[in-house]
């Protein structure tokens, strides 16, 4: 085991490696050949969704000790979606570097990743893949369903509350009461937002024990799962079962199909592409279309439906979805518990067909994800049909362009803004380089004057992302982004834009000559940062269709420490 390269040594080096660890009260036998299990913890009081992770880590430790391992907990950069400015996505790649280097640099034989809030899952998985030692993921679990004025609420209601306050249907006092009603327990967002999508992603990839995705954070069974995961990682080390054994091309295809069936966040695309890049699986945007296309929406959860993660768990959770998709999945994929997908999910039972439907009678026939392309997005863009308006799936309208998010905020509620319900709202410079960091602003709020007329949805297009809790007819991740000087950069007010989701098309209806002329005159308007991490990020981040990872982080460097001097 690699940990014996530290703890198994004699002489001065072994003395140093063990002696300082012993100041924590660790007996000598812990160092004599036991698998050392790192518990990579994203606990932080600034990441409220992961605020219970110290307790969860204790459960993991119990499992590791019970199985004969030696647990060591370590912190890594934690990304709290709600507080971090300018956007947590700016730091996903930085956090993944922290994870990668922390694992490789230390005497660890296997690692348990404690993930919860949106970016904490992809950043930890990306980092671990680049090292490729035995790895198991434990998600923190969703919050209990919120209750406000007798109704169930979750994060997706924020957008509705915001519109209600803007058009006078809700007071500021009511909004303050709703805050406490929504987040009433530990855990991450309780709808099928990005955190829940990520928890489903790691389970469908096979990186967790079955049922990991949906157990509420406050449910005692979450701790049981954490303990069993601690137990299991010790055996994974003995079996040398690594991420590269689990994360095959087939496992990625399974995850894409499952994501379509659950109506997962569009952020799934960007994170899965980045993970595939780290583990060396050749995945493209077209794969998302190919493997999502025929999968209808089975799960009736907000934002595409009405229920919450708690209901999803009581209905049987992800194993039921995977059993329902059985015939379309690669059932022989190996998973973290050493069993195949089929072995894990064949006995799953649905306890509520209204929450998780069957393939023959799906909740919605629209798939959870579609990829479009055309002259406006040469390298593709994504839309979530299950959370969009059917009447806008094929739509042609006049562009109303916002050159930046600041421009949007300054003008969107101007009564003189020339816009109607058929217009297409276009937002530029919110991509990976342009913002920088690709924030979740793509689901721009509808102009106030249209809201007052009862307009609830419009076609919106940007190079940014959308919160997994968001909804509406929103085309996201346009690549190349405006800051790269693609066609998006030269869209002007009054241009006609056509979206046809069925035929996968997004077109700017302007002649090629005119587009070429505009591009020849185009100059970037985004701010270029000239120091620190953000400078490196802007210089090296790849476009959305490649997962927005840094070009120099693709692949991995393995687990070997090449220099060793004491
Ligand atoms: Fe953390 Fe939604 S803010 S999961």
Walk me through what this model shows.
- The structure is a single chain.
- The protein is an alpha/beta fold and 566 residues long.
- It contains 20 helices and 14 strands.
- The strands form four sheets. Strands 12-11-10-9-13-14 form a six-stranded mixed beta sheet. A four-stranded parallel beta sheet has the order 2-1-3-4, sandwiched between helices.
- Strand 7 and strand 8 form a beta hairpin.
- The longest helix is centred in the middle third of the chain and has 20 residues.
- The chain is globular.
- The structure holds FE2/S2 (inorganic) cluster.
Question: pLDDT below 50 for ≥5 consecutive residues: which ranges?
Answer: none
Q: How many angstroms does the end-to-end distance come to?
A: 20 Å
Helix count?
Answer: 20
Strands of the widest sheet, in order across it, are: 12-11-10-9-13-14
Q: Please state the CA-atom Rg, rounded to the nearest Å.
A: 24 Å
Major sheet description: 6 strands, mixed
Share in β-strands: 5-15%
What class would the helix/strand composition place it in? alpha/beta
What's the pLDDT, averaged over the residues? Answer: 95
Query: Any idea what the shape is?
Result: globular
Q: Key terms for this structure?
A:
binds FE2/S2 (inorganic) cluster; globular; 12% strand; six-stranded mixed β-sheet; 14 strands; 20 helices; 566 residues; 34% helix; four-stranded parallel β-sheet; alpha/beta
């Amino acid at each position: 085991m690699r940990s014996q390269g530290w703890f198994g040594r004699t002489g001065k080096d072994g003395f140093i490696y063990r002696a300082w660890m012993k100041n924590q009260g660790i007996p000598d036998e812990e160092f004599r050949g036991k698998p050392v299990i790192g518990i990579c913890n994203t606990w932080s009081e600034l990441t409220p969704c992961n605020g219970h992770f110290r307790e969860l880590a204790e459960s993991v430790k119990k499992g590791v000790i019970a199985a004969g391992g030696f647990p060591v907990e370590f912190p890594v950069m934690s990304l709290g979606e709600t507080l971090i400015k300018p956007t947590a996505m700016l730091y996903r790649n930085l956090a993944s570097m922290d994870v990668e280097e922390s694992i490789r640099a230390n005497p660890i034989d296997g690692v348990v990743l404690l993930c919860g809030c949106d970016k904490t899952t992809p950043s930890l998985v990306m980092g671990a893949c680049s090292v490729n030692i035995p790895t198991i993921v434990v998600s923190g679990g969703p919050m209990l369903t919120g209750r406000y004025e007798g109704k169930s609420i979750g994060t997706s209601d924020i957008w509705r509350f915001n519109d209600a306050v803007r058009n006078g249907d809700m007071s500021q006092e009511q909004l303050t009461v709703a805050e406490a009603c929504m987040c009433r327990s530990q855990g991450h967002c309780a709808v099928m937002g990005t955190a829940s999508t990520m928890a489903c992603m790691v389970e469908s990839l096979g990186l967790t024990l079955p049922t990991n995705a949906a157990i509420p954070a406050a449910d005692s069974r979450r701790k049981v799962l954490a303990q069993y995961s601690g137990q299991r990682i010790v055996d994974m080390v003995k079996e040398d079962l690594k991420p590269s054994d689990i994360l095959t091309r087939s496992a990625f295809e399974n995850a894409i199909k499952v994501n379509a069936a659950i109506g997962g966040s569009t952020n799934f695309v960007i994170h899965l592409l980045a993970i595939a890049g780290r583990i060396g699986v050749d995945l493209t945007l077209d794969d998302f279309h190919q493997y999502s296309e025929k999968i209808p929406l089975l799960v009736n959860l907000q934002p595409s439906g009405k229920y919450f993660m708690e209901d999803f768990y009581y209905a049987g959770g992800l194993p039921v979805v995977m059993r329902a998709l059985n015939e379309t999945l690669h059932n022989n994929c190996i998973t973290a518990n050493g069993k195949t997908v089929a072995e894990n999910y064949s006995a799953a039972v649905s306890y509520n067909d209204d929450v998780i439907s069957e393939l023959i009678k799906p909740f919605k026939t629209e798939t959870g994800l579609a990829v479009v392309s055309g002259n406006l997005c040469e390298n593709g863009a994504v839309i979530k049909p299950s959370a969009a308006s059917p009447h806008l799936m094929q739509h042609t309208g006049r562009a109303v362009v916002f050159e930046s998010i600041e421009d949007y905020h300054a003008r969107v509620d101007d009564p003189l803004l020339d816009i109607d319900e058929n217009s297409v709202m276009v937002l530029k410079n919110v991509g990976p380089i342009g913002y920088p960091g690709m924030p979740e602003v793509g689901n721009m709020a509808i102009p106030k004057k249209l809201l007052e007329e009862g307009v609830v949805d419009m076609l919106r297009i940007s190079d940014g992302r959308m919160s997994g809790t968001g909804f509406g007819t929103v085309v996201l991740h346009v690549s190349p982004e405006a800051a790269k000087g693609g066609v998006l950069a030269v869209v002007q007010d009054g241009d006609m834009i056509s979206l046809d989701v069925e035929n996968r098309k997004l077109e700017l209806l302007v002649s090629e000559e005119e587009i070429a002329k505009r591009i020849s005159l185009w100059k970037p308007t985004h701010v270029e940062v000239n120091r620190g991490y953000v400078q490196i990020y802007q210089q090296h981040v790849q476009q959305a269709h490649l997962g927005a990872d840094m070009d120099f982080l693709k692949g991995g460097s393995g687990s070997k420490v090449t220099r060793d001097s004491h």
